[in-house]
Structure formats: C-alpha cells, structure tokens
Amino acid sequence: MRRLPPLTAIEAFVQVARLGSIKAAAEELALSSPALSRRVQALERFIGKPLFERRHQALRLNADGERLLSGIAPALDTISDTIEAMTSGVELLRLRLGVLPLFATQRLLPRLGELKRLHPELHLDVDTGGHGVTRLGDGLDAAIVLAEEIDPALYAKRLDRNRVHVIAARALAEGPGAITEPHQLASQTVLIHRDMPETFTAWREAVGLPDLEPLAIDFFDSGSLMLEAAAQGLGIAFMLETHYESANDPRLVQLFDVTVESRYSYWFVCRPRALQTRPVRLFHDWVAATIATT
C-alpha cells in the first residue's frame, strides 16, 4: 500500500482551501492557528510543492492546490458521509431550513419535487419565522435570506442578481391621473420590505431624484402581503423583478420604463461547519445547480 500523508494534514488542507483563511479553518477544527499551519506545511513537504499563494492573512489555492483539492475533497466527503451514516443509526436525513415565504412559494416549492426525486432520503423542516441568519445553529441548519451582504464568518452562496421593479395596481397606471412619471410618487404611499430597507433610497438616486419624498413609507415583513397590498391599491411596491414576474398577477403592472440594479440578493447561508454535514451539502448543491441564477 502506498504511503499516504496523515489524514489530519489532509483535513487541515481541505478546510483552509474551502474557507480561505488559517484562522477560520483553525476555529472550525478547534485548533490553534500555528498548529493548523504546521499541518498544512507538513502536507506541502510530503507532496514536495506549495499548495497556496500566501497573501497577508489570506490564502489562495495555486494550480497544484486546485488539482489536489478536486481530487481529495470528494473522497474526504465520502469518508465523512460513510461514518456519519454508520453512526447515526437512521436512514432519513433532515434539514432545518429557514426561508422567506415569498421565495418558498415562488421559487422553492415548485422545484422541491425534483429534489425529492433526486434525494428521497432528505426531508426538510421549513421555517418561515424570519431572522434566518441569527438563528443558524440554534434551530436552523441553513437559511435562504434576502440581504445586501452576508457576514464573512458564515458560508454564503449568492442565488441571484436582480433589478428593482416599481409595482402598482393596474388602475393606478391607466386612465385620468395615471402615474406615469417618478415625481408623481410624492403623492403616493411606498411599500418596502424590511429586509430591503434602502431600496427606495437607492432607486430615487439612480433615477436622478435624490430629494423625492413619498407621502409615506409602509414597511412589510412579508413579500406576499406586499404584492397583495399593491394589487389592492394600498401603495406602490418596490420589489425585485423576480417577485413581479413570478407573481404573474393581472391586477399588477410595472410602473416606469426604468432599470435599476438591486443592492439586495437572495443568499443561501449556513455556518461553515454545517456545510460538511450531508443534509446541508445535498441541499446546497441542489440549490446551486437548480435555483441559483448567478
């Protein structure tokens, strides 16, 4: 049998490669940074070549490192999965997922049948209670959240890039007194999602009206309720393009022929160590391949 490097050195290499930081990888493996560095250096000595480009506090895989990671990471995951399956004593896999109701309705649930066919052993406990990021590790294994950016201490995968649409009831865009120019919003109530608080401010700056003030701003924590409020003529909703298109509601129209990029995106997030567990990894890989549009 060929001589192999210590498994601890391989594990250290994979963690640093995935997280891009000795400090973060050390925290995941409950080691000191110097101890983890020694393990990575031991692997480099065993192979006889460097595996990272070292830049201040960050590490980036070089070509040899990329080649090694692509070869050994799947094997290490297989070992982990096998041990997890043998020690868990159960065949079912369960994922506690936090997700916003509108994303779940428009983009997740219509595709879950495919996930079930691919991984019938994976079951989801879906939680729409909000505050997904703060509840990771405490009730949630992973979450799909709407945010401008994610804490770098967490693992995050951006699922889309979007544009802001100004959405209103059809009656407000037709007939006498129709809203056809952005400055007319000064007499209207604007509807904003609490997870996208700067949407209107960014939009008015992008269209060249930084001083535009609406009659009022009403905040919602439910995208579905925002769409319904707009359809009922209760205000003008500032939402993502996908929200409007997926709703396919004949009562709603897009106001103004204006394209403004959104600062906000949907993200898949979890703690870095959670990505090593089979339920989280299976769901992550499926979401990245099926739902992500970036």
Structural features:
294 residues; alpha/beta; five-stranded mixed beta sheet; 12 strands
Topology of helices and strands:
Elements: H1 7-19, H2 22-29, H3 33-47, E1 52-55, E2 58-61, H4 63-88, E3 93-99, H5 101-108, H6 112-118, E4 122-127, E5 142-147, E6 155-158, E7 163-169, H7 170-173, E8 189-193, H8 199-206, E9 216-220, H9 223-231, E10 236-240, H10 241-247, E11 252-261, E12 265-270, H11 278-290
Parallel strand pairs: 3-4, 3-5, 8-9, 8-10
Antiparallel strand pairs: 1-2, 5-12, 6-12, 7-10, 7-11
Summary, kept brief:
This protein has helices at 7-19, 22-29, 33-47, 63-88, 101-108, 112-118, 170-173, 199-206, 223-231, 241-247, 278-290, and strands at residues 52-55, 58-61, 93-99, 122-127, 142-147, 155-158, 163-169, 189-193, 216-220, 236-240, 252-261, 265-270.
Explained architecture:
The protein has 294 residues and is of the alpha/beta class. 40% of the residues lie in helices and 23% in strands. It contains 11 helices and 12 strands. A 5-stranded mixed beta sheet has the order 4-3-5-12-6. α8 links the parallel β8 and β9. α1 packs across α2 and α1 crosses α4. The longest helix is centred in the first third of the chain and has 26 residues. The two termini are 44 Å apart. The model has no long low-confidence stretch (mean pLDDT 88).
